[in-house]
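Retro notes (design track)

What went well: tokenization of the new backbones is finally stable.
What didn't: we kept losing track of which sequence belonged to which structure.
Fix going forward: every design gets posted as structure first, then sequence, in one message. First example under the new rule, 373 residues:
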């Protein structure tokens, strides 16, 4: 019998993959080793990643969104202060506008070397930066239910968070280039529809026995259960630049999980019937391409029709209004609705800066300013 870790229901943790940047050139710099062990009072909240130009901050387990906001604000602030003393800056974005992946230094360590050995060229191109949100749930079966049902809304979260319109100095035409780069890895994208926890464990154990993975952290789906932590982990979002955007997207993720958990406990699965995986995949593609300015497809009365992404997100906010109120995240929901109604995303911001300045280094400078808490 597989154990499921204990966590407070609907507690949340937020992880942000930040870029270490030279303020003069705007280029990424390989300096993560200077952080680990030096910023001692937040050392337990810092993580290395594949490239030495990335540092991840991981919040404490927070009971509500206000605690999470203060926690992430403190972590961003402490790192900014340390960076300035060392002559570097931090930047939050889904990709770097012009850095080259083949010029980055790989972080030393057996885990990272094994990652490159197994995944080769695809691993070396993973110069991308995401937001991961953990939400506490009560049991493994509830985790599977929420994992299955939240998939329908992953394109909505992606559309809100898109923040990577540039790749190696080029405008890609995609609002989230990050997610397309990430999709080159195995075990990414949408997970299958699991029948129950036993079905999920079959998939995990098959990958372990086949030598593909050592543990769940080597499965990189857009959403995955984390039995070791007692959470589900939503991983689809580009890293938002501003603290307010990051916290607001995390808050909506929390409210959506809370809503699904109540439905699970009330055995009202009819409120969220199974959705065609192909429709979710198509909407995921449309979200990464167009962000809030595009259209989703949906099935109504056995017919497929196109609908505005922004309208669907407003409908979602209406559906979870009770949970928004109960969790005390009205301020964050208001922020999301404002972004949505203006069709304003991080990707749109970057494109506007570049159009105004015709200089990607200016994009970096403005993003650095906006990343500060």
């Amino acid at each position: 019998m597989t154990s499921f870790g204990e966590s407070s229901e609907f507690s949340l943790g937020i992880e942000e993959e930040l870029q270490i940047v030279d303020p003069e050139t705007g280029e990424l710099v390989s300096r993560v080793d200077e952080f680990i062990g030096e910023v001692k009072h937040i050392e337990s909240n810092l993580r290395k990643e594949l490239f030495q130009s990335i540092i991840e901050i991981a919040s404490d387990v927070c009971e509500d969104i206000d605690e999470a906001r203060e926690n992430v604000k403190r972590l961003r602030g402490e790192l900014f202060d340390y960076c300035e003393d060392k002559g570097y800056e931090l930047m939050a974005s889904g990709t770097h506008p012009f850095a080259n992946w083949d010029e980055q230094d790989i972080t030393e360590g057996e885990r990272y070397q094994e990652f490159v050995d197994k995944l080769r060229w695809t691993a070396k191109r993973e110069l991308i930066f995401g937001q991961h949100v953990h939400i506490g749930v009560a049991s493994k079966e509830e985790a599977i239910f929420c994992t299955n049902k939240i998939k329908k809304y992953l394109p909505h979260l992606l559309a809100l968070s898109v923040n990577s319109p540039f790749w190696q100095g080029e405008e890609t035409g995609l609002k989230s280039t990050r997610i397309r780069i990430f999709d080159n890895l195995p075990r990414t994208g949408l997970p299958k529809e699991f029948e129950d926890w036993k079905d999920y464990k079959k998939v995990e154990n098959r990958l372990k026995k086949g030598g593909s993975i050592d543990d769940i952290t080597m499965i990189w789906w857009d959403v995955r259960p984390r039995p070791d932590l007692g959470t589900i982990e939503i991983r689809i979002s580009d890293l938002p630049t501003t603290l307010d955007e990051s916290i607001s997207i995390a808050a909506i993720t929390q409210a959506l999980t809370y809503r699904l958990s109540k439905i699970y406990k009330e055995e009202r699965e009819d409120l969220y019937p199974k959705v065609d995986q192909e429709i979710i995949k198509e909407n995921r593609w449309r979200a990464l391409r167009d962000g809030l300015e595009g259209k989703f497809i949906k099935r109504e009365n056995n017919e497929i029709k196109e609908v505005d992404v922004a309208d669907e997100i407003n409908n979602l906010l209406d559906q979870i209004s009770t949970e928004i109120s109960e969790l005390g995240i009205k301020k964050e929901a208001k922020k999301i609705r404002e972004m949505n109604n203006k069709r304003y995303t991080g990707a749109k911001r970057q494109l506007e800066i570049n159009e105004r300045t015709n200089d990607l280094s200016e994009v970096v400078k403005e993003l650095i300013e906006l990343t500060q808490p």
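Added context from the reviewer: Residues 12-371 form a domain with the Creatine Kinase; Chain A, domain 2 fold (CATH 3.30.590.20).
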